Amino acid sequence: MPLPTRTIGPFTVSSIGLGCMNLSHAYGTPPSEAEGVALLNHALDLGVTFLDTAALYGGGTNERLVAQVMHRRAEFTLASKCVLDMRDGQRILDGSPDAIATTLDAALGRLGTDHIDLYYLHRLDPNVPIEDSVGALVRAKDAGKIGAIGLSEMSAATIRRAHAVHPIAAMQSEYSPAVRNPEVAVLDTCAELGIGFVAFSPVARGLLAGSVRDDGYDAGDIRRSMPRFVEPQLSRNLALVDRYDAIARDAGITPAQLALAWLLAQAPHIVPIPGTRSIAHLEENVAAAACTLSTDTLAAVDALLPANRLVGARYPAAAQAQIDTELLPDEPLAVTS
């Protein structure tokens, strides 16, 4: 049975997509290529029609992984990203038109295609006017290399500047019951301008999926540097998670399904893209598309996790410096020591 669909710019996609990042990047040792390909194929078999990758993920490894399902190209909308990239083994932030063109051409090569449906500016480069970065993507669109333009982790003011250059199809940012920054201004701006909103980390990097119980993360896991995911902040946040899990039990669904169904209930222009390495978790996530939450359940989540309820900053200081998204009132920030 096909999944429910939603609209992101010119695309009709499954109401729950797949974030491909953690198949290659950011959460410790990635699965084997065979395991990653199996998960991608199973997602498509389940009716997921929106796959999200980026040049940064694994230094291009993730795009090469997604290339392994490009024989099923007609079944999904392909999204990738530029500006954040790897150069000579180092992470870079470069929104210049030349860098964007270079990253895009390399991505097309890795993906084994001549066209990416939706191409995002992964972050705002403060040294390059957003108009110049968007202009580079307009030229790529005119050349047929991309189909639509997206932004990631940017503010409402930046969205408006970008949209004035060329209509923006999608805005991607972190959003979940535990992370409410888009509610400051971005969600309303997207609704006003007809921009789809793509929610990454919709289960709060595993916090709302039962997979974080302590801070004994593997080497290479980005949560090791995120203040709210380590002690002494984590224990306080896990006390909230225990209460959140109880709401899910009362609703007869899993914590991850509660988070995803909550997001779908917020607005019709929101599409969450949970990532996973587990076939079982993938099936669990996709099943959330059929979950309808009662008003009492929605109210219980909002009462437990209002804006800025988690303890600790969302990002370490270096990463926060690359984020243009609005802060919540009194939001804690990591500081350099």
TrEMBL record:
InterPro entries: AKR, Aldo-Keto_reductase, NAD(P)_OxRdtase_dom_sf, NADP_OxRdtase_dom. Residues 16-304 form the NADP-dependent oxidoreductase domain. PROSITE patterns: PROKAR_LIPOPROTEIN. Pfam families: Aldo_ket_red. Keywords: Oxidoreductase. The keyword Hydrolase does not apply. This is Aldo/keto reductase. It comes from Sphingomonas floccifaciens. The lineage of its organism: Bacteria, Pseudomonadati, Pseudomonadota, Alphaproteobacteria, Sphingomonadales.
